[in-house]
């Protein structure tokens, strides 16, 4: 009988929400390796009526958590959540000695890995960090209050110090863990959010040759900085590039201000705002693009960059973000800009329009290759 690779994640796609498709791809890649039986657990609030479900061949099982509103006092009711976890594992007929690895996504979920390791000392515990705010200090309406930040920080540090392996979606993400002096890292590993290249790949014949089309996918939040792209396009339009077309996908707090800027500056003929679309339909969207641009300046990695790249579409990003680790140093002046530098962004877009040079990456983005190497590393840690 295979040992169990237990994944505990607040993010996993369903028919109602497509959040967390990269974790789904990770699960499928682990299963393909054939070393483990993968079990996915997803926490839900105790009052939620959500039921266990299957998403594209993967069973997802819920257990209850008892979190206070607005991320206040995390961990206060862990004893109840752990009891719910134990009941779920019993209902699935999982003997704890069958579990080889507990892979928790985000720091707070690490508490369940720690509990299980205390029961079975041979279990290897993993926390995967998906953002630069590795302790979730900015979450909730109390994030500016010192008492709240101290509670969250101490709670997160305690979890991190009991974890065998810290995984970051980029080396930059792991730097944010290392910069917290109270955290003692036993082992760490940068696992880029790879792409399932059977889903994202070039499709010939759907690109409109009459236009140079730029795409951007992200929530409309200040940190995503879509306005920098809009201003860059405005510069190019004013220079006479009338064949430009830009499509944004996303929603959020800055969407209306971006729409207002487009309207006020006469850019409606060049820029389109689209509603969010199903993740599985993104392949055709990417393949209609000539270039993908996301000027986000607080980005741990960004799956959209590599999904576009897998479809044969180069991307431009901001320096100092996780995705920059994939750009060879000799090519950074082609593909990376400083935060908010719409003038240089416009220049880079123009240069690419005129030269169409090939974008190269310094690391593989194939999810199966990345997971194969990752599982070898897990076997090597104590």
TrEMBL record:
Residues 207-361 form the Glycosyl transferase family domain. InterPro entries: Glyco_trans_1, Glycosyltransferase_grp1. This is Glycosyltransferase involved in cell wall bisynthesis. Keywords: Membrane, Transferase, Transmembrane, Transmembrane helix. GO terms for molecular function: hexosyltransferase activity. The keyword Transmembrane helix applies. The keyword Membrane applies. The chain crosses the membrane at residues 61-82, 94-115. It comes from the Bacteria.
